[in-house]
Specification:
- By secondary structure, the chain is of the alpha+beta class.
- It contains 12 helices and 7 strands.
- Helix 6 (91-97) packs across helix 8 (124-134).
- The chain is elongated, with a radius of gyration of 25 Å.
Length: 224
């Protein structure tokens, strides 16, 4: 039987490899304070620190869980499978917005959500509410939900009454960016007393929208 000789120090790759941890488990264990930061020269760990962690390895594995930190798509797939329910795109971001799902990093500019929190999330109602409020809609679908023309929606955006919550790449041309609007924002603007919705919805195609009279929101200048 071949045995691996102990080292006098352990780097950020040797430590998890010798301890039988994946890199994400190792990173999470450090984030949770289960494994201390480097205590040796060059950002490495001493043999004593390694041995201490090895003595607690079963506890560490249990504490860090089985699910790595993931992006929105994988998080929403997990929630749909776990709760056997429809989970709309935008749910992960909505859970984070409500303080139920921490963002712990990013990958290529996209947020990574805490896998440990996802693994331990048991409140179906929180997920259902976030799925409803956070559901994302493209411009045409958002206008249809409000019962208005797409040009009317553009006036709402121009006036600062509605702002997109996320973006995506077009399925037709990957270089084009598609703006996505959140259901809760559409619900909010639909209750605005500044707008005569009956008049807007009654305006026929080709006629000037009543929303055209809304003042354009001034853009804030950086540094002010």
């Amino acid at each position: 039987m071949t045995t691996t000789a102990p080292l006098t120090w352990y780097g950020p790759l040797q430590f998890p490899d010798r301890a039988g941890l994946t890199l994400w488990q190792f990173a999470r264990a450090q984030r949770l304070g289960l494994i201390p930061g480097p205590d040796a020269v060059g950002g490495r760990w001493s043999a004593a620190a390694f041995d201490d962690a090895l003595d607690r390895i079963h506890t560490i594995r249990q504490a860090v869980g089985a699910m790595p930190d993931v992006g929105a798509v994988r998080a929403e797939e997990h929630l749909a499978e776990h709760f056997t329910m429809t989970v709309h795109s935008g749910t992960a971001a909505e859970l984070a917005r409500r303080g139920h799902l921490p963002v712990v990093g990013d990958h290529k500019g996209h947020p990574l959500y805490c896998g440990l929190t996802l693994e331990n999330l048991t409140d179906r109602r929180k997920v259902a509410r976030a799925s409803t409020a956070g559901q994302l809609h493209m411009r045409d679908a958002a206008a249809k939900l409000l019962g208005i023309r797409e040009s009317d929606l553009d006036h709402l955006v121009r006036a600062g009454l509605l702002t997109h919550a996320a973006t995506a790449r077009s399925s037709w041309n990957k270089r084009d960016v598609v703006l996505l609007y959140r259901q809760a924002d559409l619900d909010r603007v639909s209750r605005s007393r500044r707008i005569d919705w009956a008049a807007v919805r009654a305006t026929p195609k080709g006629r000037r929208s009543p929303l055209a009279a809304l003042p354009t929101k001034k853009r804030q200048t950086a540094g002010r």
